[in-house]
Write a structure and sequence with these properties.
The protein has 2 domains: about 5-85, 3-Layer(aba) Sandwich (Glutaredoxin), CATH 3.40.30; about 90-200 and about 210-215, Glutathione S-transferase Yfyf (Class Pi), Chain A, domain 2, CATH 1.20.1050.10. The chain is built from 10 helices and 4 strands; from the N terminus they run βαβαββαααααααα. The protein has helices at about 15-25, 45-50, 70-80, 90-105, 110-115, 130-150, 160-175, 180-190, 195-205, 220-225; strands at about 5, 30-35, 60-65, 65-70. The protein has a 4-stranded mixed beta sheet with strand order 2-1-3-4, with helices on one face. α1 (about 15-25) packs across α7. The radius of gyration is 17 Å and the shape is globular.
């Protein structure tokens, strides 16, 4: 039986993006089911539909036969037990990858709240708080140290779980035109060149569902043209 991934809107759902790009990027076959939320034609029964798959009532959810796994890190760990390519082979590198993934999962709240993932928003800067700038600085340090230590082009050489966890941050940096150093920019370019990234973004910018709280420029973002060729 094929794996199945339950996801939310591709334009907004950063947590859905993570396991999706991990599986696509590593060639893991799966089916997807998108349960939309938002207006004008979002699904008013989102919670009840997702609750059929997850007691948490949130996306993403991975289904493998009778096994249902929710929470992104748990999904990645489950996949790692079935497919060996998600984490680095060396124990020290694997521990490092798990540490920064956990930091991503639990941290960077200022950046997340001030810069929600939104592929459809035309790239332009916005003023960030001191806390969000601190988040940006820490993320740049993570990316730079990993690429310098493990040789790139991704965080641990080849694409893996850590890159999937940080993929929505790459999207945020681009969408909100956040300045970065050369090493961080090179990392972003490697991520957006992935065919999986292009596939997700192509679908995301075509979605019609709108979540007002994730449209910080509401409603101007809906009136501006979308550059589908940008990363």
């Amino acid at each position: 039986m094929a794996l199945k991934l339950i996801i939310g809107n591709k334009n907004y759902s950063s947590w859905s993006f993570r396991p999706w790009i991990a599986m696509k990027g590593l060639g893991i076959a799966f089916e997807e089911e998108l349960i939309p939320f938002g207006q004008p034609i979002g699904n008013p029964e989102f919670k009840s539909r997702v609750a059929k798959y997850s007691p948490a009532g949130k996306v993403p959810v991975l289904i493998d036969g009778d096994v249902h796994v929710w929470e992104t890190i748990a999904i990645l760990e489950y996949l790692a037990e079935k497919f060996s390519a998600l984490w680095p082979i060396a124990p020290a590198a694997r521990a490092h990858a798990r540490a920064i993934c956990a930091e991503m999962h639990a941290g960077f709240q200022a950046l997340r709240s001030e810069c929600p993932m939104n592929f459809r928003r035309p790239p332009q800067p916005r003023e960030l708080s001191v806390a969000a700038h601190a988040d940006v600085k820490r993320i740049e340090v993570i990316w730079t140290e990993c690429r310098e230590r493990y040789g790139g082009p991704f965080l641990f050489g080849r694409f893996g779980a850590a890159d999937a966890m940080f993929a929505p941050v790459v999207a945020r940096f681009h969408t909100y035109a956040i300045p970065t150093g050369r090493e961080a920019l090179a990392y972003m370019q490697a991520v957006v060149a992935l065919p999986a990234w292009v596939e997700w973004k192509t679908a995301a910018v075509k979605e019609v569902w709108v979540v007002a709280e994730d449209e910080i420029d509401w409603p101007t973002v809906l009136l501006a043209p979308v550059d589908e060729d940008s990363p």
